[in-house]
């Protein structure tokens, strides 16, 4: 994957990237919105320093560390990616509360249409805003969305200093354990 130039990044502002989604996935991961690197390259969680791909692997979801350009391989593992807001921004705080609520409604429709086993939202603040769950915490949520159980994970952005790489991997591993237990019990 070619490193985007400053001009590429500037041109990516407001650009969206397609969902990576299919019916009956084990987990649909939902980011907040594409960063400019992702919008410029067309690959989810593409910015160097984003810890999504390492956490996904360390948490047990993939047998090897995938690069953003290999995102299409996730479908074979029963995994997909979408975003609460479609437009690319330099920072998630550029999004409005209304955009996140609208994204939550669109996400609920996607869940109803595609029926994943789990929804994993990457960012508790975005989850709270999108779904009006002011007191939500990390981990499994008591509410379901469109009948789908919800798990909130930390935002994997390198800007999220609250979580080390090891803590992020452990959070992903907790979800992986829950998904695995659900498969055994079905």
- Report the order of strands and helices: HEHHEHEHEEH
Oligomer: single chain
Number of helices: 6
User: Which CATH first-tier class would you pick?
Assistant: Alpha Beta
Cα distance spanning the termini: 39 Å
CATH fold group: Uracil-DNA Glycosylase, subunit E
Helix content: 25-40%
Low-pLDDT residue spans: none
Strand-residue proportion: 15-25%
Shape: globular
Overall CATH architecture: 3-Layer(aba) Sandwich
Number of domains: 1
Looking at CATH, the homologous superfamily is Uracil-DNA glycosylase-like domain
Our Rg estimate from Cα atoms comes to 15 Å
Number of strands: 5
The largest sheet has its strands arranged as: 2-1-3-5-4
């Amino acid at each position: 994957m070619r490193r985007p130039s400053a001009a590429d990044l500037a041109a990516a502002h407001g650009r969206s990237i397609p969902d990576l989604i299919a019916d009956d996935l084990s987990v649909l991961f939902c980011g907040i919105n594409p960063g400019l690197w992702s919008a410029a390259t067309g690959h989810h969680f593409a910015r160097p320093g984003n810890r999504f791909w390492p956490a996904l692997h360390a948490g047990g979801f993939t047998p090897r560390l995938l690069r953003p350009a290999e995102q299409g391989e996730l479908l074979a593992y029963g995994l997909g990616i979408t975003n609460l807001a479609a437009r690319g921004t330099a920072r998630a705080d550029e999004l409005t509360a209304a955009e996140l609520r609208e994204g939550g409604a669109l996400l609920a429709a996607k869940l109803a249409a595609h029926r994943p086993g789990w929804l994993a939202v990457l960012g508790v603040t975005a989850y709270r805003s999108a779904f009006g769950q002011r007191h939500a915490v990390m981990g499994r949520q008591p509410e379901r969305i469109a009948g789908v159980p919800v798990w909130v994970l930390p935002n994997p952005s390198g800007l999220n200093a609250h979580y080390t790489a090891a803590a992020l991997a452990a959070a992903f591993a907790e979800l992986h354990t829950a998904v695995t237990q659900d498969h055994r019990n079905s």
